[in-house]
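About this split. The held-out portion is used to measure sequence recovery: a designer receives only the structure tokens and must propose an amino acid at every position. Recovery is the fraction of positions where the proposal matches the reference. Here is one held-out target exactly as it appears in the evaluation file.
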């Protein structure tokens, strides 16, 4: 089995190109067979809500909904910082099916002793 991948994203739609790059890396990891987790903090927590990750960042960029669909189909997961999420008074009922509120302890538990390749955006 390929090693785990963790993509840490703290940027939301205020920088759609950065979000697109993070999702391209995540999709590439999960579609190549790596167990993949995106940890979302700060403004990125909004992207774990149904319907928020919309639009196209640039000419020639894939649409964000397409990237989310590919990530979900390949069994990619989201861990959403509960402190950031709750500070924004967001509704956890709107979380994507493959997203969960989970903090650093759960992130380290998921990584486990074998470690993970990480990317941060």
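Reference sequence for scoring:
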């Amino acid at each position: 089995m390929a090693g785990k991948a963790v993509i840490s994203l703290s940027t939301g739609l205020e920088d759609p190109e950065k979000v697109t790059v993070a999702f391209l890396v995540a999709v590439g990891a999960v579609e190549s067979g790596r167990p993949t987790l995106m940890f979302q903090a700060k403004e990125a927590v909004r992207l774990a809500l149904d319907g928020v990750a919309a639009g196209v960042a640039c000419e020639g960029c894939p649409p964000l909904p397409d990237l989310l669909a590919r990530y979900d189909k390949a069994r990619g997961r989201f861990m959403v910082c509960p402190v950031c999420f709750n500070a924004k008074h967001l509704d956890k009922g709107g979380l994507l099916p493959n997203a969960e509120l989970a903090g650093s302890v759960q992130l380290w538990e998921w990584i486990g002793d074998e470690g993970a390749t990480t990317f941060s955006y």
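Annotator remark: The chain has one domain: 4-120.
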